[in-house]
Fold this protein.
Amino acid sequence: MKVLVLPGDGVGPEVTAEAVRVLRWFAEYRGLDLTLVERDFGIVNWHKHGTLMPDETWAQIEATDAILFGATGSIDQQGLVPPEERRKGSLLRMRKALDLFANMRPVRMQPALTEASPYKPRITAGVDLCFVRELTAGMYFGTPRGVETLADGTRRGVNTHTYTEAEIARAARFAFTLARTRRNHVTSVDKANVMEAGALWREMVGKIHASEFPDVGFENMLADNCAIQLARAPRRFDVVVTDNLFGDLLSDAAGAIVGSLGMLPSASLSEPDAAGRRRALYEPIHGSAPDIAGQGIANPLGAILSVAMLLRWSAGRPQDADALEAAVEAALAGGARTADIAAPGEAVMGTRAMGDAVIAALG
Protein backbone atom coordinates (compact mmCIF):
# COMPACT_ATOMS: atom_id res chain seq x y z
CA MET A 1 0.00 0.00 0.00
CA LYS A 2 1.32 3.41 -0.99
CA VAL A 3 0.62 6.14 1.55
CA LEU A 4 1.33 9.78 0.78
CA VAL A 5 2.22 11.80 3.89
CA LEU A 6 1.37 15.52 3.78
CA PRO A 7 2.30 16.99 7.20
CA GLY A 8 1.06 20.49 6.35
CA ASP A 9 1.19 23.62 8.48
CA GLY A 10 1.50 24.49 12.15
CA VAL A 11 1.41 21.47 14.44
CA GLY A 12 0.71 19.21 11.46
CA PRO A 13 4.32 18.01 11.05
CA GLU A 14 4.61 17.29 14.78
CA VAL A 15 1.50 15.14 15.12
CA THR A 16 1.98 13.48 11.72
CA ALA A 17 5.49 12.39 12.69
CA GLU A 18 4.00 10.33 15.53
CA ALA A 19 1.35 8.85 13.23
CA VAL A 20 4.08 7.83 10.79
CA ARG A 21 6.07 6.20 13.60
CA VAL A 22 3.02 4.11 14.41
CA LEU A 23 2.53 3.14 10.76
CA ARG A 24 6.16 2.08 10.56
CA TRP A 25 5.70 -0.02 13.69
CA PHE A 26 2.95 -1.99 11.96
CA ALA A 27 5.17 -2.42 8.91
CA GLU A 28 8.04 -3.72 11.04
CA TYR A 29 6.20 -5.86 13.57
CA ARG A 30 2.89 -6.79 11.92
CA GLY A 31 3.96 -7.24 8.31
CA LEU A 32 2.06 -4.29 6.87
CA ASP A 33 3.23 -3.97 3.25
CA LEU A 34 3.79 -0.25 3.11
CA THR A 35 5.47 2.39 0.98
CA LEU A 36 5.56 5.88 2.51
CA VAL A 37 6.12 8.96 0.37
CA GLU A 38 6.31 12.36 2.05
CA ARG A 39 5.77 15.74 0.40
CA ASP A 40 5.59 19.27 1.75
CA PHE A 41 2.16 20.85 1.93
CA GLY A 42 1.09 24.40 2.69
CA ILE A 43 3.06 27.55 3.31
CA VAL A 44 6.43 25.77 3.15
CA ASN A 45 5.76 25.13 -0.56
CA TRP A 46 5.07 28.81 -1.13
CA HIS A 47 8.38 29.76 0.45
CA LYS A 48 10.30 27.07 -1.48
CA HIS A 49 8.56 27.07 -4.86
CA GLY A 50 6.28 30.11 -5.08
CA THR A 51 3.21 27.86 -5.23
CA LEU A 52 1.20 25.99 -2.63
CA MET A 53 0.77 22.98 -4.91
CA PRO A 54 3.76 21.97 -7.09
CA ASP A 55 2.82 19.76 -10.02
CA GLU A 56 4.81 16.82 -8.67
CA THR A 57 2.90 16.94 -5.39
CA TRP A 58 -0.43 16.89 -7.21
CA ALA A 59 0.77 13.94 -9.28
CA GLN A 60 1.55 12.06 -6.06
CA ILE A 61 -1.89 12.92 -4.66
CA GLU A 62 -3.58 11.46 -7.71
CA ALA A 63 -1.41 8.32 -7.74
CA THR A 64 -1.51 7.27 -4.09
CA ASP A 65 -3.69 4.68 -2.34
CA ALA A 66 -4.21 6.78 0.79
CA ILE A 67 -3.18 10.18 2.12
CA LEU A 68 -2.12 10.79 5.71
CA PHE A 69 -2.66 14.49 6.30
CA GLY A 70 -1.60 16.74 9.17
CA ALA A 71 -3.18 20.19 9.23
CA THR A 72 -3.66 23.14 6.95
CA GLY A 73 -3.78 26.88 7.39
CA SER A 74 -1.13 29.42 8.24
CA ILE A 75 -1.30 32.99 9.43
CA ASP A 76 1.27 33.70 6.71
CA GLN A 77 -1.12 32.72 3.93
CA GLN A 78 -3.74 35.44 4.28
CA GLY A 79 -1.60 38.40 3.33
CA LEU A 80 1.18 36.63 1.46
CA VAL A 81 -0.51 34.09 -0.82
CA PRO A 82 -2.93 35.20 -3.57
CA PRO A 83 -6.47 33.77 -3.37
CA GLU A 84 -6.06 31.71 -6.54
CA GLU A 85 -2.94 30.05 -5.08
CA ARG A 86 -4.75 29.33 -1.82
CA ARG A 87 -7.47 27.56 -3.80
CA LYS A 88 -4.91 25.62 -5.85
CA GLY A 89 -3.22 24.29 -2.73
CA SER A 90 -6.32 23.82 -0.58
CA LEU A 91 -7.68 20.79 1.20
CA LEU A 92 -11.02 21.55 -0.46
CA ARG A 93 -9.44 20.99 -3.87
CA MET A 94 -8.18 17.57 -2.81
CA ARG A 95 -11.55 16.57 -1.42
CA LYS A 96 -13.36 17.57 -4.60
CA ALA A 97 -10.84 16.22 -7.10
CA LEU A 98 -10.62 12.84 -5.36
CA ASP A 99 -14.40 12.82 -4.77
CA LEU A 100 -13.97 12.19 -1.03
CA PHE A 101 -17.66 12.65 -0.32
CA ALA A 102 -17.97 10.61 2.90
CA ASN A 103 -16.23 12.11 5.91
CA MET A 104 -16.36 9.91 9.01
CA ARG A 105 -15.66 11.59 12.33
CA PRO A 106 -15.94 9.13 15.22
CA VAL A 107 -16.39 10.47 18.75
CA ARG A 108 -15.65 7.89 21.44
CA MET A 109 -15.24 8.71 25.10
CA GLN A 110 -12.06 7.33 26.64
CA PRO A 111 -12.80 6.07 30.18
CA ALA A 112 -9.52 7.53 31.47
CA LEU A 113 -10.43 11.07 30.35
CA THR A 114 -13.45 11.66 32.53
CA GLU A 115 -11.79 14.62 34.22
CA ALA A 116 -10.70 16.12 30.89
CA SER A 117 -14.29 16.55 29.72
CA PRO A 118 -16.26 19.60 30.85
CA TYR A 119 -19.37 17.40 31.02
CA LYS A 120 -20.50 15.27 33.94
CA PRO A 121 -19.36 11.65 33.86
CA ARG A 122 -22.96 10.41 33.70
CA ILE A 123 -23.32 12.33 30.41
CA THR A 124 -20.11 11.18 28.74
CA ALA A 125 -19.81 7.56 29.93
CA GLY A 126 -20.19 5.20 27.00
CA VAL A 127 -20.41 7.84 24.28
CA ASP A 128 -19.60 6.18 20.93
CA LEU A 129 -21.00 7.95 17.87
CA CYS A 130 -19.86 8.70 14.35
CA PHE A 131 -20.61 11.69 12.18
CA VAL A 132 -20.94 11.12 8.45
CA ARG A 133 -20.39 14.56 6.96
CA GLU A 134 -21.07 15.04 3.26
CA LEU A 135 -17.79 16.57 2.11
CA THR A 136 -17.85 17.61 -1.54
CA ALA A 137 -20.94 19.81 -1.91
CA GLY A 138 -23.01 22.23 0.15
CA MET A 139 -21.93 25.62 1.44
CA TYR A 140 -18.20 25.10 0.90
CA PHE A 141 -18.54 24.34 -2.82
CA GLY A 142 -21.74 26.03 -3.99
CA THR A 143 -21.71 28.82 -6.55
CA PRO A 144 -22.06 31.73 -6.86
CA ARG A 145 -19.64 32.66 -4.11
CA GLY A 146 -17.33 35.57 -3.39
CA VAL A 147 -17.37 39.20 -2.33
CA GLU A 148 -18.97 41.72 -4.67
CA THR A 149 -19.26 45.50 -4.66
CA LEU A 150 -22.80 46.80 -4.90
CA ALA A 151 -23.96 49.89 -6.78
CA ASP A 152 -23.81 52.02 -3.64
CA GLY A 153 -20.15 51.06 -3.07
CA THR A 154 -20.77 48.67 -0.18
CA ARG A 155 -19.64 45.06 -0.36
CA ARG A 156 -21.62 41.86 -0.03
CA GLY A 157 -20.32 38.37 0.70
CA VAL A 158 -22.07 35.48 -1.03
CA ASN A 159 -21.97 31.75 -0.36
CA THR A 160 -24.45 29.30 -1.82
CA HIS A 161 -25.81 26.22 -0.06
CA THR A 162 -26.68 23.70 -2.77
CA TYR A 163 -27.27 19.94 -2.97
CA THR A 164 -28.46 17.58 -5.69
CA GLU A 165 -30.53 14.49 -5.01
CA ALA A 166 -27.60 12.26 -5.98
CA GLU A 167 -25.19 14.02 -3.60
CA ILE A 168 -27.61 13.55 -0.71
CA ALA A 169 -28.47 9.96 -1.61
CA ARG A 170 -24.92 8.65 -1.62
CA ALA A 171 -24.12 10.24 1.74
CA ALA A 172 -27.29 8.68 3.15
CA ARG A 173 -26.44 5.24 1.76
CA PHE A 174 -22.98 5.42 3.28
CA ALA A 175 -24.43 6.36 6.68
CA PHE A 176 -27.06 3.63 6.70
CA THR A 177 -24.53 1.02 5.60
CA LEU A 178 -22.16 2.14 8.36
CA ALA A 179 -24.96 1.98 10.94
CA ARG A 180 -25.53 -1.69 10.11
CA THR A 181 -22.00 -2.37 11.39
CA ARG A 182 -22.59 -0.41 14.59
CA ARG A 183 -25.81 -0.03 16.64
CA ASN A 184 -28.11 0.21 13.62
CA HIS A 185 -29.43 3.74 14.05
CA VAL A 186 -29.09 6.90 11.94
CA THR A 187 -29.95 10.47 12.85
CA SER A 188 -30.24 12.76 9.82
CA VAL A 189 -29.57 16.42 10.67
CA ASP A 190 -30.74 19.42 8.62
CA LYS A 191 -32.53 22.77 8.78
CA ALA A 192 -35.52 21.71 6.71
CA ASN A 193 -37.68 24.28 8.48
CA VAL A 194 -35.89 27.27 6.94
CA MET A 195 -33.67 25.99 4.08
CA GLU A 196 -34.93 24.59 0.78
CA ALA A 197 -31.78 22.48 0.37
CA GLY A 198 -32.44 21.22 3.88
CA ALA A 199 -35.97 20.21 2.93
CA LEU A 200 -34.61 18.27 -0.05
CA TRP A 201 -32.02 16.68 2.25
CA ARG A 202 -34.75 15.47 4.60
CA GLU A 203 -36.89 14.18 1.75
CA MET A 204 -34.09 12.25 0.07
CA VAL A 205 -32.65 10.67 3.23
CA GLY A 206 -36.16 9.57 4.17
CA LYS A 207 -36.66 7.99 0.73
CA ILE A 208 -33.36 6.12 0.90
CA HIS A 209 -34.25 4.82 4.35
CA ALA A 210 -37.71 3.64 3.37
CA SER A 211 -36.71 2.00 0.10
CA GLU A 212 -33.29 0.51 0.91
CA PHE A 213 -32.66 0.42 4.68
CA PRO A 214 -35.98 -0.11 6.50
CA ASP A 215 -34.19 -2.35 9.02
CA VAL A 216 -32.11 0.57 10.32
CA GLY A 217 -33.51 2.79 13.06
CA PHE A 218 -33.99 6.33 11.80
CA GLU A 219 -34.90 9.83 12.90
CA ASN A 220 -34.74 13.37 11.53
CA MET A 221 -33.42 16.17 13.73
CA LEU A 222 -32.96 19.90 13.24
CA ALA A 223 -29.35 21.05 13.53
CA ASP A 224 -29.96 23.37 16.48
CA ASN A 225 -31.69 20.59 18.40
CA CYS A 226 -28.81 18.26 17.56
CA ALA A 227 -26.38 20.73 19.13
CA ILE A 228 -28.43 20.68 22.32
CA GLN A 229 -28.75 16.89 22.37
CA LEU A 230 -25.01 16.43 21.86
CA ALA A 231 -24.50 18.40 25.06
CA ARG A 232 -27.25 16.84 27.17
CA ALA A 233 -27.60 13.26 25.87
CA PRO A 234 -24.80 12.31 23.45
CA ARG A 235 -25.26 8.58 24.11
CA ARG A 236 -28.53 8.67 22.17
CA PHE A 237 -26.58 9.00 18.90
CA ASP A 238 -25.05 6.22 16.82
CA VAL A 239 -24.50 7.52 13.26
CA VAL A 240 -25.25 11.17 12.51
CA VAL A 241 -25.46 12.06 8.81
CA THR A 242 -25.53 15.69 7.81
CA ASP A 243 -24.34 18.24 5.28
CA ASN A 244 -20.93 19.80 4.89
CA LEU A 245 -21.45 22.88 7.06
CA PHE A 246 -23.42 21.31 9.90
CA GLY A 247 -21.09 18.31 9.91
CA ASP A 248 -18.11 20.61 10.37
CA LEU A 249 -19.67 22.59 13.20
CA LEU A 250 -21.37 19.78 15.11
CA SER A 251 -18.43 17.36 15.02
CA ASP A 252 -16.07 20.06 16.28
CA ALA A 253 -18.51 20.86 19.09
CA ALA A 254 -18.54 17.17 19.97
CA GLY A 255 -14.82 17.44 20.68
CA ALA A 256 -15.77 18.92 24.03
CA ILE A 257 -17.41 15.64 25.01
CA VAL A 258 -14.07 13.80 24.95
CA GLY A 259 -12.13 16.76 26.31
CA SER A 260 -10.20 18.00 23.28
CA LEU A 261 -10.29 18.25 19.49
CA GLY A 262 -6.83 16.69 19.67
CA MET A 263 -8.50 13.34 20.39
CA LEU A 264 -10.62 13.15 17.24
CA PRO A 265 -9.59 11.39 14.00
CA SER A 266 -11.29 11.35 10.62
CA ALA A 267 -11.42 9.48 7.33
CA SER A 268 -12.63 10.90 4.02
CA LEU A 269 -13.59 8.30 1.43
CA SER A 270 -14.68 8.12 -2.19
CA GLU A 271 -17.06 5.65 -3.79
CA PRO A 272 -15.39 2.24 -4.28
CA ASP A 273 -13.97 1.44 -7.69
CA ALA A 274 -14.58 -1.80 -9.61
CA ALA A 275 -12.10 -3.60 -7.34
CA GLY A 276 -13.74 -2.24 -4.19
CA ARG A 277 -10.96 0.23 -3.40
CA ARG A 278 -11.75 3.74 -2.22
CA ARG A 279 -9.66 6.88 -2.52
CA ALA A 280 -8.98 8.00 1.04
CA LEU A 281 -7.58 10.80 3.15
CA TYR A 282 -6.97 10.44 6.88
CA GLU A 283 -6.43 13.37 9.25
CA PRO A 284 -7.09 14.61 12.78
CA ILE A 285 -9.97 17.06 12.74
CA HIS A 286 -8.09 19.80 14.56
CA GLY A 287 -6.48 22.75 12.79
CA SER A 288 -2.90 23.91 12.52
CA ALA A 289 -2.84 25.59 15.98
CA PRO A 290 -0.12 28.12 15.08
CA ASP A 291 -0.02 29.39 18.68
CA ILE A 292 1.62 26.16 19.86
CA ALA A 293 3.41 25.06 16.67
CA GLY A 294 7.02 24.06 17.12
CA GLN A 295 6.76 23.61 20.88
CA GLY A 296 6.37 19.82 20.86
CA ILE A 297 3.26 19.92 23.04
CA ALA A 298 0.45 19.14 20.56
CA ASN A 299 -1.70 16.07 21.15
CA PRO A 300 -0.92 13.45 18.44
CA LEU A 301 -3.73 11.05 19.35
CA GLY A 302 -6.15 12.36 16.73
CA ALA A 303 -3.47 11.71 14.09
CA ILE A 304 -2.61 8.31 15.56
CA LEU A 305 -6.27 7.27 15.69
CA SER A 306 -6.54 8.37 12.05
CA VAL A 307 -3.94 5.69 11.35
CA ALA A 308 -6.31 3.17 12.97
CA MET A 309 -8.97 4.28 10.47
CA LEU A 310 -6.44 3.88 7.65
CA LEU A 311 -5.67 0.35 8.80
CA ARG A 312 -9.37 -0.49 8.85
CA TRP A 313 -10.61 1.22 5.69
CA SER A 314 -7.62 1.24 3.30
CA ALA A 315 -5.34 -1.55 4.49
CA GLY A 316 -8.16 -3.98 5.24
CA ARG A 317 -6.64 -4.86 8.61
CA PRO A 318 -9.39 -4.45 11.22
CA GLN A 319 -7.51 -6.46 13.85
CA ASP A 320 -4.56 -4.08 13.63
CA ALA A 321 -6.95 -1.14 13.83
CA ASP A 322 -8.48 -2.62 16.98
CA ALA A 323 -5.01 -3.18 18.44
CA LEU A 324 -4.03 0.44 17.84
CA GLU A 325 -7.22 1.79 19.37
CA ALA A 326 -6.68 -0.47 22.39
CA ALA A 327 -3.08 0.80 22.68
CA VAL A 328 -4.30 4.41 22.78
CA GLU A 329 -6.79 3.48 25.49
CA ALA A 330 -4.08 1.65 27.44
CA ALA A 331 -1.67 4.59 27.19
CA LEU A 332 -4.33 6.93 28.54
CA ALA A 333 -5.27 4.48 31.28
CA GLY A 334 -1.59 4.42 32.24
CA GLY A 335 -1.60 8.17 32.77
CA ALA A 336 -0.26 9.49 29.46
CA ARG A 337 -1.48 13.08 29.06
CA THR A 338 -0.68 15.98 26.79
CA ALA A 339 -1.57 19.43 28.11
CA ASP A 340 -4.98 19.61 26.41
CA ILE A 341 -6.32 16.50 28.18
CA ALA A 342 -4.55 16.79 31.55
CA ALA A 343 -6.64 17.41 34.64
CA PRO A 344 -5.24 19.68 37.38
CA GLY A 345 -2.33 17.99 39.09
CA GLU A 346 -1.75 15.38 36.38
CA ALA A 347 1.70 15.10 34.83
CA VAL A 348 1.97 16.46 31.29
CA MET A 349 4.06 14.99 28.48
CA GLY A 350 4.94 16.25 25.01
CA THR A 351 3.99 15.08 21.54
CA ARG A 352 6.87 12.64 21.13
CA ALA A 353 6.40 11.13 24.57
CA MET A 354 2.72 10.46 23.84
CA GLY A 355 3.76 8.65 20.67
CA ASP A 356 6.24 6.63 22.77
CA ALA A 357 3.46 5.70 25.20
CA VAL A 358 1.20 4.38 22.41
CA ILE A 359 4.01 2.39 20.78
CA ALA A 360 4.97 0.92 24.17
CA ALA A 361 1.35 -0.13 24.68
CA LEU A 362 1.39 -1.85 21.28
CA GLY A 363 4.06 -4.10 22.73
Q: What stands out?
A: The two ends are 23 Å apart (CA to CA). Residues 169 and 204 are 6 Å apart (CA to CA). The longest helix spans residues 12-29.
